[in-house]
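Example 214, ligand PRP.
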Amino acid sequence: MRYLTMALTKGRLAKQTMQLLEKVGISCEEMTDPATRKLIFINEELKLKFFLAKGPDVPTYVEYGAADIGVVGEDTIMEEGRKIYEVLDLGFGKCRMCVAGPEEAAALLNGQEQIRVATKYPKIARDYFTERKNQTVEIIKLNGSIELAPIVGLAEVIVDIVETGSTLKENGLKVLEEVCPLSARVVVNPVSMRMENARITKLLDDMNRILTLK
Ligand code: PRP
């Protein structure tokens, strides 16, 4: 039997995924060591491999088949636009994609103004403004601490994920519009889905059973 490989988003999503997998009888002792710098872990008995990657890279590993299965936020799946199957909503990692900014910026979202939008998600931001709002905007790609942009005058608004809302609040910003709700998803490589259908379907069914018990 060949290994089934799973790419997990490093950090909280990987931890929550491993907790869920433990409930279906899949564990990986090595991975729970908080001091480890290892990126790849093997469960020899079940012929499973797990590796930890940055979120935006998870759909890439899955599209190319370097991982059969991935766990990643829906925001990243939307942004990356890879040829992968989205097969299961894990119900955790819940947050919202929002347009945010200072309260006064609400008036600039009327569809007419030429504004600048800072974001880590240029595709989602562009689709939202052009397709859903029919507003021409300039997108400025940033890599983090997006909330800075309207404060220092780089952009009028941002498109970013909001979980608790505390980052916005502590920086004097507000949610101005909601783009969509988000959660963590399981994605699968289309060829793996065909070739390893029985194993992957069983794994997904087992995970789904635990999720619906909650
Ligand atoms: C994310 C996001 C917001 C924050 C939202 O940033 O970009 O800044 O979390 O969470 P909250 O609503 O609970 O405050 P992340 O922590 O991933 O860091 P980043 O600034 O490097 O993107």
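Summary: The domain at 4-93+183-213 is CATH 3.40.190.10 (D-Maltodextrin-Binding Protein; domain 2).
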